[in-house]
Amino acid sequence: MKIAVSAETFPGESRVAATPDTIKAFIKKGFDVAVEAGAGKGAFISDDAFAGAGAKIGNGEAALQDADILLSVRRPEARTTGSLKKGALVAAILDPYGDRPGLETLAKQGLTLFAMELMPRITRAQSMDVLSSQANLAGYKAVIDAAAQFGRAFPMMMTAAGTVPPAKVFIMGVGVAGLQAIATARRLGAIVSATDVRKATEEQVKSLGAKFVFADVADAATAGGYARELSAEDKAKQAALVAEHIKIQDIVITTALIPGRPAPVLVTQEMVETMKPGSVIVDLAVERGGNCPLSKPGEIVMHKGVTIMGNLNLAGRLAGNASPLYARNLQNFLDPLIKDGALKIDWADEIITGTLVAKDGELVHKMFKS
Ligand code: NAD
């Protein structure tokens, strides 16, 4: 059986879906591994390092030809997947909510597609959870980006010439990215506050030494650990609280997402206009419509003295860390599916039903049924 690792073609994507360590582990389990030449370049892994782990290095088609499994970071392009074996397993961040015709084309090639971002939030799957491994880095990078853009310092400094006040940082959405953003901003010496619509986050925020800001809304936690959309009344309550709080913030990092829905608007244009000149907003939800209507994907927007950063793929900009974590997530996902050097998939397992998007030419996930 053959595993192929593709070089990413998605604009700006520098991560890679395997490392020399994960390749060694697959070879030990009886697989041949082929890596597309240059696949690891953006993550600082040379072809020689992959070859040293036992992979064959090939150009495009040659690497993917007749593979039983394709590992990639982003949804692969149909023009490259034609040379995989019929029914080949593809594990990637497939963006199942986006570009449905493109996904159908891959399904029609007969590929067995697994969307890693649909991994169920269950204990057994924690080590396979790509959203967590990547969001953690994104939360860190968001604060670093904000600090680099901010024309003032984060920590308080008392000097003979006067006192530099600490920056006030407000984190909106306390999931994996938000928690790391809180921790990073605290390490840099900022005064940090945070909000979420899941009440369970209060304890987490406080344990990191930040202040919890919570509107009197119904707990929006769902059984899967994600948030649901607020009612219109609760949205208004939250907006009123945020409007008051945001006026005195220097940095706002927004991370709020609702699975399968556009990101909720949390920072309106009116709120931005109440912020002090020099303030910085980093909108981590920009790829899903944004938590601030002024943010633009991949751009830095100036609005009345406030900078709104719509940086894309923050984890990908830390590819040297993001790739090993992502590659290990994939290895942890595949390991239980491999028995005696071959794939033996339990199609009823909730990890499989949760992530399986296409099989036998059809889109099969429940998200496509309604
Ligand atoms: P996410 O990326 O889906 O959303 C980010 C945060 O935004 C969430 O905390 C969400 O509650 C919040 N949010 C949504 N709407 C909001 C609004 N209107 N205002 C303010 N905040 C809003 O979340 P995530 O990072 O994927 O994490 C969701 C939860 O799942 C967390 O509790 C996390 O610890 C948990 N989790 C569990 C596992 C596991 O058990 N395997 C793995 C990873 C994460």
Description:
The chain has helices at 20-28, 47-52, 60-64, 78-81, 100-108, 130-149, 176-187, 201-207, 232-246, 269-274, 319-334, 350-355, and strands spanning 2-5, 32-36, 56-58, 69-74, 89-93, 112-115, 157-159, 162-164, 168-172, 191-195, 211-212, 251-254, 280-283, 300-303, 306-309, 338-339, 342-343, 356-359, 362-363. Strands 3-2-1-4-5-6-18-19 form an eight-stranded mixed β-sheet, with helices on both faces. Helix 6 runs parallel beside helix 7 and helix 6 (130-149) runs antiparallel to helix 11 (319-334). With 370 residues, it is α/β, with parallel strands linked by helices. It is globular, with a radius of gyration of 22 Å. The chain folds into two domains: 2-118 and 319-358, NAD(P)-binding Rossmann-like Domain (Rossmann fold, 3-Layer(aba) Sandwich); 136-313, Rossmann fold, CATH 3.40.50. The site of nicotinamide-adenine-dinucleotide has 29 residues, from helix 6 and helix 7. Its EC number is 1.6.1.2. It is an enzyme of class 1 (oxidoreductase). Keywords: Oxidoreductase.
Write the layout of secondary structure elements.
Blueprint: E1 2-5, H1 20-28, E2 32-36, H2 47-52, E3 56-58, H3 60-64, E4 69-74, H4 78-81, E5 89-93, H5 100-108, E6 112-115, H6 130-149, E7 157-159, E8 162-164, E9 168-172, H7 176-187, E10 191-195, H8 201-207, E11 211-212, H9 232-246, E12 251-254, H10 269-274, E13 280-283, E14 300-303, E15 306-309, H11 319-334, E16 338-339, E17 342-343, H12 350-355, E18 356-359, E19 362-363
Parallel strand pairs: 1-2, 1-4, 2-3, 4-5, 5-6, 9-10, 9-12, 10-11, 12-13, 13-15
Antiparallel strand pairs: 6-18, 7-8, 14-15, 16-17, 18-19
Helix pairs in contact: 6-7, 6-11
The protein binds nicotinamide-adenine-dinucleotide.
Nicotinamide-adenine-dinucleotide binds next to helix 6 and helix 7.
